[in-house]
Design a protein that fits this description.
114 residues; mainly alpha; globular; disordered N terminus
Length: 114
């Protein structure tokens, strides 16, 4: 049973590393996500769907397919939400969230920035 748990931990760590690489390679995705979130907040939304923002990005902004086969990978949505909340605290509670491995990434970034 411990072997199975270790396997899942390795997969989760791998997901964080993949996001870091993806974010470094495609910083414009976060920029677009942030712009749309600010726009949604400015027109009066108290809450909004992060996945909804990704759908808007796909529809209105297009984009090239990345090596993972997607223009905007939904698997990374929780990471973008946490990054935005970390950078702009006015967005805390703007998006509905569940506990996620992306929380660990933000803790890691906070320790690096101190």
């Amino acid at each position: 049973m411990n072997v199975q748990l270790d396997l899942f931990e390795a997969l989760n760590a791998s997901h964080i590393e993949k996001f870091k690489e993806y974010h470094k390679k495609y910083p414009n995705i976060y920029k677009k996500f942030k712009e749309l979130a600010i726009e949604a907040k400015n027109i009066g939304h108290k809450h909004f769907s992060a996945r909804g923002l990704f759908q808007v990005m796909r529809f209105k902004m297009g984009g090239d397919l990345k090596e993972d086969g997607f223009k905007y990978n939904n698997n990374y949505t929780p990471f973008y939400v946490r990054l935005l909340e970390n950078e702009c605290p006015v967005f805390v509670d703007f998006f509905e969230k569940r506990k996620s491995k992306s929380d660990e990434l933000i803790k890691e970034l906070e320790t690096v920035n101190k």
